[in-house]
Amino acid sequence: SGTNFSKTWGGCSSLTTFRSDYDFSSATDLSNAWANSGLTSFPAYSFPEATTLRQSWRNCPLTAMSLITMPKCTSLNSTWQGCENMVTMPAIDISNVIYFSTTWSNCLVLENFGPDDFSSATAFVQTWFACKKLTTIPAIDTANNCTSYKQAFNTCNLLADVPSGVFDTTGTLTSDAFQSTFRNCALTAASVENILVSLDTNGASNITLGLDGGTTAAKSTWTAAAITAFNNLAGDPAVPGDTGKGWTIEFNA
Questions:
Q1: How far apart, in Å, are the Cα atoms of 145 and each of 21, 118, 122, 127?
Q2: Rounded CA separation 137/163 (Å)
Q3: Which pLDDT belongs to residue 249?
Q4: Span 60-65, mean pLDDT?
């Protein structure tokens, strides 16, 4: 009948495995439950009443995450942050989760990403920061209420692929909604086009966007469609006084 397991096993650095027969059916708060422990694996579990798993496995040496169910969870802030050895994330149901700040940041070798329903998300601030093995973005195009993607994929050094239409519809974007979002990535010219055209379609004004650093395609290699979208957003540099929609865009020359 326990409801609050906040920090229960947190910091247990010698705890490398966890038993699979606890009853968490009444648990509502699992924040920091195993944070900074020595867990290298975690069994499949059901948390039917949990509303927060904030920082639950933060900085654990997990190599993979087993399937968990959490139908009422709304917060996954920093849940797997710093799990530097975790390669695989299973297809857990995150459809009711609102908060994703730094959820998988610094998961340095995360390659296989299962979750794909972000329909309740309101922001992705540093969500995948420094996930250095990701080559394509997760299916975040269902997050139609999202207001910020600030630094979401910053330092994802192998991130090359962003599909079209991802940002066509969002919530009301903050002025720094795309600040450093794709800094130090490896975006192809096609992906740059997809990002710029989608943001142009979005219609938002006066936003900062980071496409600079890393091996992302330089502006000299962009497609005509990308250049047109850039000019619509930031203004055509060949037209004196043209500021477009007031965007500030950082890019590789």
A1: 38, 10, 5, 16
A2: 8
A3: 98
A4: 95
